[in-house]
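We modelled the chain as a single entity of 264 amino acids. Its sequence is:
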Amino acid sequence: MTAIALTIAGSDSGGGAGIQADLKTFSALGVYGASVLTAITAQNTRGVRAVETVSPKMVVQQIEAVLEDLDVGAIKIGMVANAEIASAIATALRRFDRKAVLDPVMVATSGDRLLEPEAVDAIRRELLPLAIVVTPNLPEAAILAGGDAAQNEEEMARQAEHIRAAGAEAVLVKGGHGRGAEAVDLLIDGHGKHRFTAPRIETTNDHGTGCTLSAAIAAGLAKGATLEQAAAAAKTYLTEALAASKGLTIGHGRGPVHHFHRQW
């Protein structure tokens, strides 16, 4: 049976993040990818120039078209853009009794804001209860939990518990924005705490890291892995993609990770 995953996210015209990164990740990991577009961005490796949202009605119609036909094994939600789209996604997923991997995309790698402030409340209220796992980086975890970015693993775990209390089944706080020789991610779920580590890769080709990790988790779930197995495999895949990205020459800013490092 063909493993299928669905990404609900925005488009990156530069190809390094968003829908493009998700579909590349699915394909690289042997999963067929379907997509629902929430927004169109004009961006490249140097930054975001413009964002135009898709209507909530069209977002719902895309979700319905995919889920009424394809046997989707896992769903990933990325950029939702605004509160209306977040609510529309939640309504559609509840109709199909589906939950998702939620990547709370709020700020691009370049620092450009991708989420309207009022949409944060909609994510907390509408989407966290539908999350199999939510995958914030340190700044995003701070926004969702309230407070400053975590400075150590104890604070990461505390913020994860706070987010989980808002309704998510599990929370994976990513330590890529931290410091030290190792990049540590913490998964907090109903079974306790799971710690994933990898050497910190120094590279300027890191555009789309969050999209890629959450898409890799969804790909693992679509293939039947447990959440812990999917998170561990996704961490390995992203670390390899970051290391291999040094061989790419794309654009003049922060380039993409190498999604097809195992194939090319």
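As a brief sanity check on the tokenised model: The mean pLDDT is 94. The domain at 4-247 is CATH 3.40.1190.20 (UDP-N-acetylmuramoyl-L-alanine:D-glutamate ligase).
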